[in-house]
Amino acid sequence: MTLHDVDREHDAPTATVTVVFHSVHGHTRVLAEHLADGARLVPGARVHLVEIRAEDVTAGRWYDAEVMALLERSDAIVLGCPTLMGSVSAVFKAFLEAAFTPFTTQAWKDKLAGGFTMSASQSGDKLAVLEQLAVFAAQLGMQWIGVGDMPGNNWSGGTRDDVNRLGSWLGLMSQSHADLEAEQAGSRGDLITAQRYGERIGRLTQRWVNAVPYDTPRMTEHEARALSASLREADDAPAALTGA
Fold first, then answer.
1. Phi and psi at residue 81, in whole multiples of 5°?
2. What is the CA radius of gyration of the chain?
């Protein structure tokens, strides 16, 4: 960091977080946007949202010099794609393979990393995708950040709108019905979890890069259930009471 590398609005040192993703029908894009919004809550965080597109793949090879340059200067890289047939999407796999060049020079070593995925099925073997993304990050020498929330929707009072309702910690999981438009992607709980995960990554990046103090937030399972309930109540409140 240089002496000029400061977010003047917040008087905070800057850290660059890039969310790079592939989306087929737009559902994963919505998840990426919420994750990026969460990272933007962190003072000093410079957040970039990059979509990997099929048209940038030629003869099975993906390449975009501008994107690779951005990732080179990023402090944290968050990887996301849909789960298709129990694996990362083909387009995103082409992007991952393009990282062979920084692999050979350890150019991404000790950058922070995280991952997220979306599927239509409740399970869909999404864990396999998160494992693929985490192994990729490990091969690049990156430091992986998992989801820090307690599980939701694991008791009789739970709902699909709970925070971390799919109980995933290696990375962020979300589920969307295949016949719904992108605007209806995920559940409210999934999108809140994405935002919380993005903020967690942003704050840990500031701690990792700039030694910004970070107080680890902790809660019991009972407190986590109360949090999900309070979010549902806020969502169900009449507009006159919420000021909307």
1. -165, 165
2. 18
Q: Pairing relation of β-strands 172-175 and 143-144? A: unpaired
Q: Per DSSP, what are the bridge partners of residue 77?
A: 18, 113
Integer angstrom CA distances of residue 137 from 78, 107, 152, 177: 10, 12, 27, 29
Q: How far apart are CA 82 and CA 72, in angstroms?
A: 24
Output the pTM of the full model. Answer: 0.90
Kindly report, residue by residue over 23-57, the tens digit of the pLDDT: 998 889 999 999 999 999 999 999 999 999 999 99
CA dist 216 to 92, 200, 232, Å? 32, 10, 25
Q: Phi and psi of 140, rounded to 5°?
A: -85, 0
Cα–Cα distance for residue pair 155/153, rounded to 1 Å = 6
Q: Which residues contact 138 (CB under 8 A, 6 or more apart)?
A: 144
Residue 66 tokens, joined:
């501008």
Question: Is residue 180 a contact partner of residue 25, using CB atoms and an 8 Å limit?
Answer: no
Contacts of 123 (CB under 8 A, 6+ apart): none
Distance CA 223, CA 229 (A): 10
Cα(20)–Cα(48) distance, integer angstroms: 8
Is the CB of residue 48 less than 8 Å from the CB of residue 70? yes
End-to-end alpha carbon distance in the chain: 41
CA distance 133 to 113: 9
The residue count of the chain comes to 244
Q: Compute CA 232 distance to the chain's CA centroid, rounded to the nearest angstrom.
A: 22
Res. 233: pLDDT tops 70: yes
